[in-house]
Amino acid sequence: MSKKGGATLSGRSLESPLHRRWSAVVGSGTPKKAAGMAVEETDTSGETSAPNPGSSSTMGLLLTSHLIFSFLLTCAGAQDDSDKARGEECAPHSQPWQVALFEHGRFNCGASLISPNWVLTAAHCQTRGMRVRLGEHNLRKRDGPEQLRAVARIIPHPRYEERSHRHDVMLLRLLRPAHLSAKVHPIPLPTRCPRPGEACVVSGWGLVSGKEPGATGRPESQVSLPDTLHCGNISVISTASCNKDYPGCLLNTMVCAGVEGGGTDSCEGDSGGPLVCGGVLQGIVSWGDVPCDTTTKPGVYTKVCSYLEWIKETMKRN
Asked: Residue ranges of the Peptidase S1 domain (predicted)?
């Protein structure tokens, strides 16, 4: 999360969905990956994942911000970067619905637990060999509530379009239900759409930056991959205002959020993570401008209220 934007959605290159890591500079049109730390891929409940071929079992999960930016030609300046660099560390386990997604031992995206059996994330986060981590705070250390789950079904929206970020939403059915507790708990789905000015929190393990909004210099030297979950306080931005930042790019199934003048947003590594407003899940980190630690543009999120019927029907059928 970039505190230029607390939480920044990142995950696309030049207008592409990004696995939003707070802050981070992304090369135009190229996938964003941030080298990270090793994390033991085990679950205190007994479920373990097979070790990665060719890697030491002690390496466990190599934490990386695997941001996938899909460049939208008509929005050449924007990037899937829901991880605006800066933001503060969340109070441990204050976001019990927060999920970490891993691909073959590498951190890939954020997500949200919406029921004991289901996780909601961005379609651009789809990879092979997906694993779900629940109850995480510090990806380097375990403090008890962590749970590892295999994925039984991966269901991206059937009309997802990578270039336009249209329908950037995906459901994951867990192989085993989550053990619910105060530190692992689903987030309610909305009963209405978000309103301009509404206060929200975006969270993730995306890149973070110590750089102030509008600052210049080499961003590579000022961003870092946090061990701990970070949170950013942002607000819903009106469609009219956001259209000025991303002319011709926004759809009615998207919602913008950020801080006036920048400073807090999602970034690379945050992709797929939650935008929580009033205690309900209103958005999924999808895409945004880059570099996310210096831009003054808001992040763009998949508007969850637009997909309630699809979510409920898909869960019912599967």
From this structure: 84-316
